[in-house]
Each structure stands twice: as structure tokens, then as C-alpha cells.
Amino acid sequence: DGGITQSPKYLFRKEGQNVTLSCEQNLNHDAMYWYRQDPGQGLRLIYYSQIVNDFQKGDIAEGYSVSREKKESFPLTVTSAQKNPTAFYLCASSKKGLAGDYEQYFGPGTRLTVT
Amino acid sequence: QQQVKQSPQSLIVQKGGISIINCAYENTAFDYFPWYQQFPGKGPALLIAIRPDVSEKKEGRFTISFNKSAKQFSLHIMDSQPGDSATYFCAACAGGTSYGKLTFGQGTILTVHP
User: Fold this and answer.
1) Is B89 on the interface with A (CB under 8 A)?
2) pLDDT tens digit string along B47-60?
3) Who's near B23: CB < 8 A, 6+ residues apart?
């Protein structure tokens, strides 16, 4: 069954703790992305990676960190420096080819609550 | 210049009616315009997408209309059904160094009454 998995579905943390969200894909996609979604708002790009061992900051990278050691995996760490971390986090992936295949496919999301 | 503006914020349609959601953009480098459908608590799912070399694309009950000169594109849902009730997002993407960076609209909550 091909797709993108995110775990856990719900995550609760105390303020001041770092937390890592998992994202795995078996679609053989080169590029992976992390978005944040807040109620009533669109998706905002946190980080993206077009190839293993390389990643770029998106529009709201402050307080977040990522790694891309394997093609299939793109974990996101929400650090204590992120001022308002409670949100719905979405991971996505896409193929990357010379023709510029931009279709992004999303995982089911992780809802993070920090108190 | 990176913004994509989406309207309306919410839309109520009767079953069988036509739902129309509009988006406008400024960045002329955008060359890919997808629409996503999202149900509560789920990740968005790609619905339909268009590139600026065509003015319309239809897939089943869903049609994208694209107006390059006006920098606007819209989603039309024909014969709207209660199962279409969801949040819809338009997005846009440019190539080159901005490859893969989707810029999303704010979303439209569609409610289809039976």
C-alpha cells in the first residue's frame, strides 16, 4: 500500500520540550515537504527537501529543524524556540523530474498540542 | 507577490447546484495551479490541477477555469453533493529555484445542503 505515513496522529507535549514528528513515504518521491496548518488558514511551508542530505527553509522555518538522511524519511523537530507550536502538521512528497512534476501528495497529518 | 488570494471564505450550496471558488495571484512566474480538497482531520487530497497553457480543464464534475491575463483561476463543482462538503484550497507553484514551493490560498469551507 503506497503512500505517506505520519505518526503519531495526536501528540501532546509540555511547553519547553522538543518534539519530533515522523514522516515516511514509500512512493519513491525525491522531494518532501512540511507544512503547518492553523484553523481558518491555508497551509504554510516550514521546510522542504528536494534530495537526500539537502533541505531548504520555507516561509516559517523559525523554531523548527529537519533532517533528510534517507529518501523515504523527513522528520520534523519542533523546538522549544517555536513560540506557538500548537497546530496541525502536514507532510507531503512529490516526484522531481526534468519536466517539473509538481504534484504533491499529503500524509494524514499530526495534531500537536503544547500546554 | 507570493500571495494567492482565495474567495469566498465559506460557501453554502444546495444539492445539485454549482459551487464556484475563485483565486487570484500576482506572481507571473507561477506555472502550476492545483486545487486540494480537505476533510476535517485529514490531509489535503489533490483534486485537479492546471497549467497556464490551457484555459480550462475538466475532470468529472470538477472544472478549473484559468484566465492568464487576469491572473485568476477558479474551481467549479457541478451538481454539488453533500459528500463534497469540505474545505477547498487553491495553490500555485513556480519552477526554477522555487521548484515545489506551493503557495496556498486561505481556503473555502463548502457546505452542500441536501
Assistant:
1) yes
2) 999 988 899 999 99
3) B4, B5, B6, B7, B33, B72, B73, B74, B90, B92, B105
